[in-house]
Design a protein that fits this description.
Order of helices and strands: HHHHEEHH
Number of helices: 6
Distance between the termini: 35 Å
Shape: globular
Oligomer: single chain
Length: about 150
């Protein structure tokens, strides 16, 4: 395996993409009149129904804070609470059509450009890109592990 500098190759491009992603999230949230956490909650709801406690865990906030986030999304018509089908004591949070329209409307310009970019690559090339990105994801996840004790 060759030595890779963090100053050359795909690493700087990935670093730039990650930095830009944070700026874009802030911009989209502001443009939609949402907090970044509310936008992230909608992103999680776009992939499936969530319970309030699960949303709290995914958003890394307290359950009461997640309840406030859901309250605001419900107030804007972007989400609804429903009783869990199998356990009426539990509540599920569902994204509404309004929420889907909001997210889709905010992201469609980028998604269109991404579809165009995908079309420039062969299936084999896309597989390599995905393999690299999944590996980068695993590398980032190591930072979420408990860090070794730092010398003070």
């Amino acid at each position: 395996m060759r030595e890779q500098s963090y100053l050359t190759g795909p690493i700087p491009a990935l670093r730039d993409l990650m930095a830009l992603s944070g700026r874009v999230r802030h911009h989209l949230a502001r443009r939609a009149g949402l907090s970044e956490t509310e936008l992230l909650a909608l992103d999680h709801l776009s992939t499936g129904v969530r319970g309030p406690a699960e949303l709290a865990r995914l958003l890394e906030v307290s359950t009461p804070a997640a309840t406030g986030i859901v309250d605001r999304l419900v107030g804007r018509g972007h989400a609804v609470r429903r009783a869990h089908v199998g356990d009426r004591r539990r509540t599920e949070v569902h994204m509404t059509q309004s929420g889907r329209v909001e997210v889709r409307g905010q992201l469609e310009p980028m998604l269109g450009k991404m579809r165009e970019l995908d079309a420039e690559f062969s299936p084999e090339e896309l597989a390599v890109v995905e393999r690299y990105l999944r590996g980068a994801q695993r590398a980032l996840e190591t930072l979420l592990d408990d860090p070794p004790s730092a010398a003070r």
